[in-house]
Amino acid sequence: MTAQLNPRGDVAVLVPAAGAGVRLGPGGPKALRRIGGEPLLVHAVRRIAAAPSVHTVVVAAPPGDADAVRDLLAPVAELTVVAVVAGGATRQESVAAALAAVPAGPEIVLVHDAARALTPTALVESVAEAVRGGAEAVVPVLPVVDTVKEVSAAGLVLGTVDRSALRAVQTPQGFRRSVLAAAHAAAVDPLTDDAGLVEKQGVPVTCVPGSEYALKITRPFDLALAEYLLTSTRYDGEADDGPR
């Protein structure tokens, strides 16, 4: 069955999913690790595709796995248009490859980590709405709750950082399409997120409240926590706040 274009959608979402996931230990590419019997990527894209604003999802797949990823995501393509491209050696290269595959139309582009597999659909909408409302770049954030120390290379504490102005940044991050394209075209040094590329261009980045469910699955503990949350009766996949 051919996927039908979401007539309401004005947003393209890029999902870099080519990372090896070394910190998760042996088991193949991170995006294809499973919780609840399905790959993280499938969980992530299903929630993205359910957002009314989303027109297209472009996934940058692990090298050599593009065909397998298309097959995995075929059921999700019933909700919105899903395209799969080959990812690059770095996250930045994967995002650039996915951005190049976005069709004409969407002028709002979100970048979302496949590892944030339980991100609520409501957060996708919140970020998109902030860009639609005039922001050129948007990141979802949570307050930093731990005490943060600056530490020397020798392991000695140099000082305590005031955490009141610190925020932990999540995805999806949202951008005007032209802003993201210009940032990638000008990129020289690789950065860990797309907002960092945009910041280097002097573009202001707006913050919106994030979600505790949008945790990044990086280590084995995170995988176990995500499995627990997925099977918890308190989790419905749509909540825009943390576990209750």
Beta-strand segment tally: 12
Strand content: 15-25%
Please tell me the overall pLDDT.
88
The coarse overall form would be: globular
The CATH homologous superfamily is called Spore Coat Polysaccharide Biosynthesis Protein SpsA, Chain A
The biggest sheet amounts to:
8 strands, mixed
* Main structural class: alpha/beta
Number of helices: 7
User: What is the helix content?
Assistant: 25-40%
| C-alpha end-to-end distance | 39 Å
As for the number of domains, it is: 1
Q: In CATH's first tier, which class applies? A: Alpha Beta
- The helix/strand order is EEEHEHEHEHEEEEEHHEH
What ranges have pLDDT less than 50 throughout 5 or more consecutive residues?
A: 1-7, 239-244
Question: At CATH's second level, what is the architecture?
Answer: Alpha-Beta Complex
Alpha carbon gyration radius: 18 Å
Description:
There is one protein chain. The chain is of the alpha/beta class and 244 residues long. The protein has a single domain, classed as Alpha-Beta Complex (Spore Coat Polysaccharide Biosynthesis Protein SpsA, Chain A). Strands 1, 4, 5, 6, 7, 10, 11 and 12 form an eight-stranded mixed beta sheet that branches. A two-stranded antiparallel sheet has the order 2-3. A two-stranded antiparallel ribbon has the order 8-9. A hairpin with a 5-residue loop joins β8 and β9. α5 crosses α6. The longest helix is centred in the middle third of the chain and has 12 residues. It is globular, with a radius of gyration of 18 Å.
